[in-house]
Amino acid sequence: MAGRDRVVHLLRQLERAACRCPAHSNTFHQGAGAATCTVRKTDYAFEMASSNIRYGDGVSREIGMDLQNLGARNVCLMTDKNLSVLPPMKAVLESLAKNGVKYKVYDNVRVEPTDTSFKEAIAFAKNDSFDVFVAVGGGSVIDTCKAANLYACHPDADFLDFVNAPIGKGKPITGALKPLIAVPTTAGTGSETTGVAIFDFEPLKAKTGIASRAIRPTLGIVDPLHTLSMPERVAANSGFDVLCHALESYTALPYNQRSPCPPNPINRPAYQGSNPISDVWSRHALNVLAKYMKRAVRDPEDLEARSSMHLASVFAGIGFGNAGVHLCHGMSYPIAGNVKTHSAKGYTVEHPLVPHGLSVVLTSPAVFNFTAPMCPERHLEAAEILGADIRQVKREDAGAVLADTLRQFLFDLHVEDGLGAVGYTKDDIPALVKGTIPQERVTKLSPREHSEEDLSRLFEASMKLY
Question: Of 24, 101, 167, 349, which has the highest C-beta tally within 10 A?
Fold first, then answer.
């Protein structure tokens, strides 16, 4: 008996000393007062979250019935000025009219939104009692609609409350939002699947955003017929966003190497690091893109290619929406935010613009050459999917091979010759680095640690591509 008592005593001592995080304990009942994880510094779990997705030619005609099924009485319908007169918006409006759905249109969404344009849309949403939100457009429209829904449902919140730290306070979203149906018209952002809304924060000339599973759309209606209205350069730049979503999420820091270990599941970020489920979606998106993107860009009437790219956007969205992105996206935000005079072909806007997909892909050869030593097999696999012959390639050459493969891919699709071609010089590098530093939410998912000097070298290497 004495031996048994000693065993019980030792077990009780171990229980008192044990880490209280779910990784090491079943003592979930201890609540907010429980000790946080003191043993494990990195995460041990990942979550898979995505919007419901409906796909099919002409499926937009069902949206009026969806809104009826939701019992919608007053719908906030958001789009932009250009899309407001194009077939995708016409199809949605016809469905709403046919099903007797009452709505109000907000068509003042800015392509590449800012904090100012977000606030204008939020003011519109707060000025009425909307019970459902609908976004018809690309990532700019869908992200703006997410923000409008969020702040209309949290009328007392300060704008920076939910904005990602360190620019905002990064508070968790605990209140319920209204249903949001997203109808994407571009094949790129994957915003219909994710809980992320990105905007330019004008005071710092840098992009930031809101990231929470709470803001992801209730339903994404993916109608490939809408992609036929995309101009060639819009199709190209949207596709480059898909490319980098897939590559970055597939090569991101693994979820179980990301720190800190969250003390509560509500603190687990949407961008968790590469994981076995996201890997499947990201890799498949890359395969589809390799087969169809050039066709989709070169022939706007190629319904098979444009439909396939629309699905690739969804696949990559599910992948990066749970794994995250890293350096290409982190560095893209100041590239877009500090734009001077560049006029983007194919975009009907009155302000200087480096489209998001372009701002992301211009650094991709340099970035993946830099990150390859941490997971060379994945970089080689990506290069092979994109057409490279890797049979005789050594692991230490993975970065150079993927970089060369990307350069050829971009050259074939007539991408501008680096940052210099969109108005930047070496004198701008300090400002670009400064704008990247606040993007820790994504840059910390790089598989390779980096310094400001590393970022400077990456921007410099991206000034000219060919």
Answer: 101
Mean pLDDT of 359-375: 98
Residue-wise DSSP of 359-370: HHHTTHHHHHHH
What H or E segment, with its residue span, contains residue 238?
Answer: helix 232-250
Torsion of CA 117, 118, 120, 121, to 10 degrees: 120
For residue range 289-325, list pLDDT tens digits in order.
999 999 999 999 999 999 999 999 999 999 999 999 9
How far apart are alpha carbons 103 and 74 in whole angstroms? 5
Token reading at 343: 């006029």
User: CA 466 to CA 445: how far, in whole Å?
Assistant: 28
Q: Residue 20 above 60 pLDDT?
A: no
Q: How far is CA 241 from the centre of its chain?
A: 9
What digits encode the pLDDT tens for the residues 143-162? 999 999 999 999 999 999 99
| 270: Cβ contacts below 8 Å, ≥ 6 apart | 49, 194, 195, 196, 211, 212, 213, 321, 322, 324
pLDDT at 409 over 80: yes
Is residue 275 scored above 90 in pLDDT?
yes
Handedness of CA 114, 117, 123, 124 (dihedral sign): negative
Indicate the average pLDDT of the chain: 91
CB-based contact 316:302 (threshold 8 Å): no
Burial class, 98, CB count within 10 angstroms (exposed 0-12 / middle 13-18 / buried 19+)? exposed
Rg (CA), the chain: 23
Give pTM, 2 decimals. 0.87
User: What's residue 452's pLDDT?
Assistant: 97
Could you tell me whether strands 103-106 and 75-78 are parallel, antiparallel, or unpaired per DSSP bridges? Answer: parallel
Q: How many CB atoms lie within 10 A of CB 236?
A: 26
The residue among 245, 183, 272, 268 whose CA lies nearest residue 382 is 245
